[in-house]
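[User] Once you have settled down, look closely at the record that follows, and write a paragraph about the fold.
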Amino acid sequence: MDANVKNDEFAKLTTRERIAYGGGDFAQNLVFGTVGGFLLTYLTTVNTISAAAGASIFLFVRIFNVFWDPFVGTTVDKSNPKNGKYRPYLMWFGIPLVIFASLLFLPIPAVQGSVVYAFLSYLATAMVYSFVNIPYGSISSSLTRDTDEIAKLTSTRMTMANVANLMVYTLFPLFVQLLAPHAKLQDTGFFGLKLHLGDYMSAAAGPSWFKVYSVYMVVGFAALMMTYFGIKERVVPSKEENESVKYSDLFIEFKNNKPLQILGLFFLVAFTFMFFGNTVWSFYLNYNIGHSEWIASIGLIGSIPGIFLVFLWPRLRAIFGKKGFFYLFLGIFILGQLILWIWSFDQFHNSPALGYIGRFFQQWGLTSATGFMWSLVPEVVSFGEWQSKKRVAGIINAIMGLFFKLGLALGGIIPGYINAAFHFNGKAATQSSKALFGIDLSMIWLPIVLAVVAMFIMAIYPLTDQKVDEMNQEILDNQNNK
C-alpha cells in the first residue's frame, strides 16, 4: 500500500458526504423508529390483538434475529460485490424493506386481529431490515480511520436521525390523527393552535396509519438512495481477507474483543430503556396524562436537542471526556424522566409546561447518549483488526445490530407484558389505577434504573482516544510494510 492510500484511509470527509451517509440513519429511523415507537400501540388498539400477543410477536422475532443477524454479517464480510462492499445492499434490499414495512399496517378486514399475519409481516420486515442495517453500519468504519472525522460524521448522522425522529414521534401521530375518523377541534397545546384531530387509537383508524406510513416509506427509500450514490468506501478488507472470513469468526471476535463486549452490553441496555419510552409514550400521554392531542406539540419540543444541539457534542466531549459525556447526558435523561413523572400528578397534568420541560431534558439526554455511542463502533472494529489482523466490520456490526435489536425488542416486549400483567385494556377509553401504574413503571422507573446501569457499564469501557490512534497507525504501518 502506498502513501496515497494511507492518506486516503485517513480521509477528511466533505459535508456533502457526511449528509449523504446520514441519509441512511434518516431512512432507517423512518422505518424502524415508527415500528419501535408505534407498532405495539397499533397492534393492541387499532388491530385489536391482546397486549400479551403483541409482546410475544416482538419476542419471537428477536429470538430469530439472534441466529439471523450473525448469518447476515458473515455473508456481508465474505462477499465482494462489484459496486462496493457494503453500498449495494442498500439498493438490493431497500425496495423490499419499504414494501414489507408498509404491510405491517395493512388495513384490510382479512388481517384485522390476526396474530399470525402480524407475526409473519414483522418477521419478514426484520429479516430484510438486517440486510440493510448491517451493511449500512459497516459503511461508517469504511469511510475513514480519522477519529475526529468519525466524531463529525456521528454528529451529522445523528442530526439527520433526529430529524427523522421528529417526523416519527411528533409528525407521524399528528398526521394519523388528522386523517383519522371522528375528528373534532382540539387544542394541540402549542400556543393555542387548534386542529381537527381524530381518534388514532381505534380500529377505524387503520387506513390512516397505512396511508401515512406508506408515504414515509417512499421518503425513506429516497434517503437510502442518497446514501448509496453519495458516499465512498475507503477502508475495506482485501480480497484475501474476505476469503479468509469464516462463520466461526463471529464467536472468536466476540470472545476476544473486550471493547466489543462492553459496548454491546451498553447498546443493549441503552436501547432497551430508549424503546421503553418510545413504546409507552403514546400510552402515557393518552391514559396517565389524559391529553393525547398534545403528542405533536410536546414531541416537537423534545426534538429540538437532537436536531439543534448536536453541534455541541464534540465540544462537550472535549470538556468532559468520552466517558464523562455519557455520564452527563444519562444524568440529564434521568432529570427529564422525573419531571415527566411529576407532570402526571393531578395538579399538573392539565398544563403542558412540565411536559415541554420534561420531554426536552429527557430527549436531550437520550438522543445524546444513544446517538454518540455509535461513534465508538468504528474504534471497536479497529481494535478487532489490530488484534486479529482481520477487518470484519460486517460481523462486528451484526453483533452491535443484534444488541440494538434485542434492546428494541425488550423495549417493546417488557412494556407489553407489563401492560398485560397490570390488566391494560386496549378497547377501553380509560384504564384502571393498576393499569396506569404499569404504564408509569414502563415509562418512568425502569428506564431510570437502566440508565444508572448504563453508567456503570460505560465506566469499564477500555479504549481511550490515544489507544485508538495508536492502533490505526500501527495497522497502516503493517500494511505498508507488506
